[in-house]
Amino acid sequence: MTSPELGISTVERETGLSKDTLRMWERRYGFPQPLRNRHGERVYPPEQVGKLRLISRLIDRGLRPRELAGATLEELMARVTATEGAPEPLGAAADNTLLLETTLDLLAAYDAAGLQSHLSRTLQRLGLLRFILEFVAPMNVQVGAAWARGALAVSQEHLYCEQMQHQLRQGIGTIYPGARAPSVLLTTLPGEDHQLGVLMAHACLALEGVRCVSLGIRTPIGDIASAAHRHGVEVVGLSFSKAFRLKTALAMLGDLRAQLPPSVEIWAGGSLWARPSHLPGEIRFISRLELIPHEIAEFCRRRRTAPSSPA
Amino acid sequence: MTSPELGISTVERETGLSKDTLRMWERRYGFPQPLRNRHGERVYPPEQVGKLRLISRLIDRGLRPRELAGATLEELMARVTATEGAPEPLGAAADNTLLLETTLDLLAAYDAAGLQSHLSRTLQRLGLLRFILEFVAPMNVQVGAAWARGALAVSQEHLYCEQMQHQLRQGIGTIYPGARAPSVLLTTLPGEDHQLGVLMAHACLALEGVRCVSLGIRTPIGDIASAAHRHGVEVVGLSFSKAFRLKTALAMLGDLRAQLPPSVEIWAGGSLWARPSHLPGEIRFISRLELIPHEIAEFCRRRRTAPSSPA
DNA sequence: ACGTATAATTGTCCAGGACAGACTATTCCC
DNA sequence: GGGAATAGTCTGTCCTGGACAATTATACGT
Questions:
Q1: Residue B208: helix, strand or coil by DSSP?
Q2: Ranges assigned E (strand) in B61-109
Q3: Which residue of B17, B59, B182, B267 has the fewest C-beta atoms within 10 A of its own C-beta?
Q4: How many CB pairs under 8 A join A and B?
Q5: Would strands B35-36 and B42-44 be described as parallel, antiparallel, or unpaired?
Q6: DSSP B282
Q7: pLDDT for residue B311 is more than 90
Q8: CA distance linking residue B153 with residue B160, whole number of Å
Q9: What domain range is A44 assigned to?
Q10: Lowest mean pLDDT, pick from A134-143, B188-197, B208-217
C-alpha cells in the first residue's frame, strides 16, 4: 500500500517545478513545507502539491512566487479565475454547446461505447475540418478545465484522449496524401505528452494538401534536427499544450533553431501560445488552428519573394 | 549562435540521465569530463554526449556504469551488438521475409510516404489478423533489434511506431463493436510507453467480438482499479514491452491485484513475458498474441464452471 | 547446489553557497 | 516631463561534497 504523501521527484513530475526550485522556495518563502520521512527526505502532503500546481500555473501567467507562496488556496483559485478568465462559458462555441455537453455527460458516465459512437457521428456530421475547429478544440479546453478543477479522473481524461485520437486518425486516414506547399515534420518536444495537438495540426495541414511526416510525441531535439534533414522537410511543426512550461519551451526552441539550417522554418502551435507574450521572431507561433491556411499562404509568399538562397 | 557545447540541463534532456547522475559519474568514474565555461559551469563536448547516450542505452539493458564509463566508443558499440546477441535471423518468419525487408529498407531510406503506402497495402493484403500476427509482431522484433544495435535512429523508430499505430487504428476502426465474452479494459502501467502492444491486443480482442475499453498508455494503478470498477469490466489487460523492468512489473501487478476485486482478472501480455520465469498464479500471462482466442475460451469455461458469485 | 550474510555498487537526496539574467525602481540628463 | 542609464531586488539554476537506501554481486556455511 502506497501512502498518499509524495516524494520530491514525484512532485517535480506532477508540478513541473524542479527539485532545486522546490527546495529554494521552501528556503526562501517557507512554502511548501513538506514533512520528512524517517530518513530525513521531504514528503509532500497532497494539498500542498495541489497548491503548488496552482502556483505553477499562475507563474506561467507572469505572477511572482513571493506573493503566491503566502496565499491561501481560495486566493489562488480567485487569482486563477481572474487571470484565466471566466470558468469556461461553454456557450461561446456557437451551436455546438449541446455536442460539448453530451460529450462531458458521456465521460462523466464512463460510457465508452456511447462516447465512441457520439464522437464518430459528430465527425461524420461536421466533416473533419469543422469537427476539429468547432468541436475538438473547444472540447479540449473543456476537458482541460474539468481536469484542472478536479472534476475528471485520470482514467476519464485518458479515455477521452484515446477515443478522440482514434477519431482523428480515422479522419486523417481518409485524406489522400498531397504534395503541395511546405512539407512539414510534426512532433512534440521531450516532456510534452499531448498527442491531440499534433493530430489536429496533422489533419489541418493534410486538408490543405501539405505533405506531413509525423514522428508522434517526445522526440529529442537532436533527433528532430537530423530527421528534418533526412526527410528533406521545409518546416518543423511542434505542438505545445498549456501545461508545458513557457521558459522550457522557449529554451528548447532556441536550441532547435540553432541546430536546424536557416532554410528550415519552425512553426510552434498549441494552447501554450494562446495568450500574448514576448516571443522570438525566428520562430513562427501559430496561436490558433484556424491560422494554418494563412500560415501556409505566407510561407509560399516568402519563398516566392526570396527563393532558396542560403548565404 | 549557440556554441556546439551543451550545458548540463541540455545533456539531461538529450541523454535522459539526471543532473545528479551526471555529476556523480564524473565524481566516481572520471567520465564524463566536461569542460567549464567562464562561470565554472559544466560544458559537455558533443562526442561525450554521444557516448553518454550509448551508455544510457546499455544500462537499460542491465549493464553497470562502472565498466562502461571507461570504455572507448568502439567497445561500447561492440557491447551494444553483443547484448542483443545474433542480429535477428529474419528468415524465421516464413514467407513474409520480403515484407519485413522492404519495411526496413523504407525506414532506412526515411521514406515516410513509401512506408505508409507499404504498410497500408500489407494490411489490406493480409487482413488485420494476419497483418498483426505475421507482420507487425515480427517487425517489432526487427525494429527493436535494429534500434538496440544502433542501426536505427530515434526518429526512425518514432516514425515506424507512428505509422504502424495509424494502420492498426485504421484496422480497429473497421470492426463493428461486439459484446461477447469478457469485457476488457486495456492500458499500460506508468513507465511503459509502448503503445503498439496495446493496439495489437485491442485488435485481436475486438476480432473475437470482445468489448474493449482502451485507456491508452501509462495509467496509474489506482486509476486502473477505479476505472475497471466504473466501466464494469471483467478483465484488465496490460501490455509490457521487453524494455520494462521485470521486478517493477511484478511489484506493480501485485499492487494492482490487491486493489482489484477478485472477480476481475488481470491479463498481462507483451514481449516481457516471452522468456520463462517464476510468475505468480493470480495473474494470467499471455506470452503470444496467438493465445488470445484460447484465453478467451478458457475464461468462458471458468465462468461456466464457477458462475459469478462474489462473497 | 542452495540459501544467507557480507560487501560493493549506484542513484537519489540533502544543505548551503554563489551568481547570472530578468525585472523594478530610482536617478539623472536633456 | 520624457526617456535613458543606473542601482537594487528577485528568481532559478548550478556548484560542492556528504550521506544513505536499495539493488546487485560475492563469499560462506550447510
A1: coil
A2: none
A3: B59
A4: 102
A5: antiparallel
A6: T
A7: no
A8: 11
A9: 6-84
A10: B188-197
- The three-point CA angle A142-A205-A282 to 5° equals 90
Query: Does residue A120 register a pLDDT over 80?
Result: yes
Q: Burial code of A240-249, b = ≥16 C-beta within 10 A, e = fewer?
A: bbbbbbbebb
Residue A73: all three cell numbers together: 488556496
- Span B30-48, pLDDT tens digits: 999 999 998 899 999 999 9
Residue-wise pLDDT tens digits, A51-65? 999 899 888 878 899
**For chain A, what is the mean pLDDT?**
88
Of B153, B220, B224, the CB nearest to A226: B153
Q: How many domains does chain A have?
A: 3
Q: Which three cell numbers stand for residue B167?
A: 494502420
**Which DSSP string do the residues of A218-248 spell out, in sequence order?**
---HHHHHHHHHHHT-SEEEEE--TTS-HHH
Tell me how close the Cα of A12 comes to any Cα of chain B, in angstroms: 13
Which pLDDT tens digit goes with each residue over B268-293?
Answer: 999 888 766 667 778 899 989 999 99
* B119/B57 same-domain check: no
Query: What are residue B214's DSSP bridge partners?
Result: B186
- Cβ neighbour number for residue B257 with a 10 Å cutoff: 18
Given this model, what pLDDT does residue A161 score? 97
B190 and B127 in one domain?
no
B215 neighbourhood in chain A, CB within 8 Å: 155, 158-159, 162
List chain A residues with CB under 8 Å of B187: 158
Question: Grid coordinates standing for B109?
Answer: 531510406
Q: Are residues A75 and A164 in the same domain?
A: no
Query: Does the pLDDT at position A310 exceed 50?
Result: no
Cβ(A237)–Cβ(A184) under 8 Å? yes
Q: The C-alpha cell of A135 is what? A: 468541436
pLDDT band at B310 (very low <50, low <70, confident <90, very high): very low
Residues A105 and A17 in one domain: no
Q: Where are the beta strands (DSSP E) in A69-207?
A: 180-187
Q: Of the candidates B110, B155, B169, which has its C-beta nearest A223's C-beta?
A: B155
Nine cell digits for residue B12: 539531461
